[in-house]
Amino acid sequence: MKLRDWKLAVAGLALLFSTASGLNAQENKPQKQRPNIGAFGSDSPERGTTRVGYWNNAKNMGAGQFAIDYGRPVWKKDYEDAAAFDKMTKGQVYRLGSNFWTTLDTDMPLNIAGKTIPAGLWYLGLHRSEDGAVWSLVFIDPAKARAAHIDASEIARAPIAFKAPMTVEKATDMKDKLTIDLTWVKPNNKDVTLRIGWGKMQLSAPIQVPVPAG
Prior knowledge:
Number of strands: 10
Strand content: 35-45%
Shape: globular
Mean pLDDT: 85
Number of helices: 3
Largest sheet: 10 strands, antiparallel
Helix content: 10-25%
Number of domains: 1
Distance between the termini: 114 Å
Radius of gyration: 30 Å
Low-confidence stretches: 1-26
Order of helices and strands: HEEHEEEEEEHEE
């Protein structure tokens, strides 16, 4: 090989190794990727609260209370399509409310539709049977939901502690936003009615409260 040809060959190999080295550097260079865990939030979400409290007039002190706190999603026209609504709800456990969990906080045991619910904090949801005939209020242990980092939107994977049947009622009016009420008729304050209204859907369940003696 002539000296000139040898120099050209060496120069070619140098260029080849330089190019390959550049390509390897690009391949090894960290690429910008979407983070595995992102954050989300809500801008001043609207929430509702309904509460029943008892007062011991003889001792001038509280005698027990319970309250439900919930987000208020807006009813959509699409939900009025019976077939679509059935597909969305039949055989499903789904969130009751919007944003953070709907909660029941009670400092005394309650009997809801024949089911004894221990005192404490509970996450709430709804369940509809496969045939669509039976609706139930679902109770989830917050400690188990927290341990698994379950968001309210993932309620289907949350373990259910209790279910209490609810009665389907004929709605007296249209509820544009989810509305949950706890009501009773005086003087019988031991029998409370839980009523859930959303759009043209209305559900209710009786609650018997162990009001302590004065």
